[in-house]
Amino acid sequence: MVFIKKKWVAVINENRWIVAKISRHKKKLTVYHMAELNRSELIPAEDKPVAIVENQDGTAVVEKALGDLQAQALKSWLKCNKVQLKKLGITFSCSGVITRMVTLPDLSNKDLEKLLTEQVDQYFTVNISDYIVDYRILEKVQEEGQKRLRVLLVAIPLLEWEKQWKLWDSIGFAPKVTDFSAECLGRLYRYLSGWEEKKNQAPVLDLAIVDLGTDRVEFVLMEHGVFFLYSDMEISLGGVNEPDESEELALVSELSETAELNELGISNESIDSIEPNESIDASETVAQNELEERLSPVFNTLTDFLNFFASRHYGKSVDKIYITGECADYKNLEELFEKNMGIQSKVGFPEDWKPKFTSKSSNFADRWMKYGSLFGLATRED
Length: 382
Fold this sequence. Notes:
By secondary structure, the protein is an alpha/beta fold.
């Protein structure tokens, strides 16, 4: 009998939390519990403190009071979901993260730590004192007969990191595992592509992974299963997938008026003759056009990244685009990406992989494609 260990994992994306209790056996992931929270919605508007004093000291007191209320509400939410904070591993993401891929000599862990501590600033053009830097060894390679390490450097804005740690400390939480969301995405897609099963054979496909959020998009490019590039950008996709009743009524009215006139401008059809499906199809067309328009910056940015990738690979672009994230269930995403990028695109994960949801987490089962970074954290060995 195989003992399957369950673990608590969480994705923290600035003010958004996703927590889950998950077990893994090889490629089988089982979700026993899952919950989502937008921290800005924790406190009802009527309960939020209002700044009355305009001086600096008064404002600071109000801000602290709001932070305390949010911390208390977050702690209650975690307790309500029976999250075991001492065993909770997290993956973190925020705006302004910078990554670098560097190739270094094959050093011991101690020497590598010392080298990066003393010389990390030479790999970045920003003031590195404003960031906290972590690193991961991605692979060992042979270059010109020498063993080398390919290392991913991740620089997170210090102010954002300190803000998060302050919140975690206020609820008595010190992460057991801290990971970077984009790396979790890379780990999951690498794992599902079969790399871990074929140690001596790299995956054939180069991939672009797009984590599509309502207000932010993250891009990860994978070169034969190895992290190649990361970036993010702000976006506005909130509400695009939600039907607007006023717009639908306006469409019905417009279609009806059009149908009432023939080529001579003489009325020959009544409003009642408009088929319901016709107005629905028109509404869906409008929604798809709006989504495509809002995704235009994503397509433009991704095109730039793929051109950069091609410039490093003798003109070859990636083979496939995968879409995950908060907005991955929006309609017609695959068609829109293929139309604008000219590359095969798929919502979800390689090999049509899906996790299993138990009865207690079944209300998240139809949103399986949204949680790539969460599942990537769950595949981590420690």
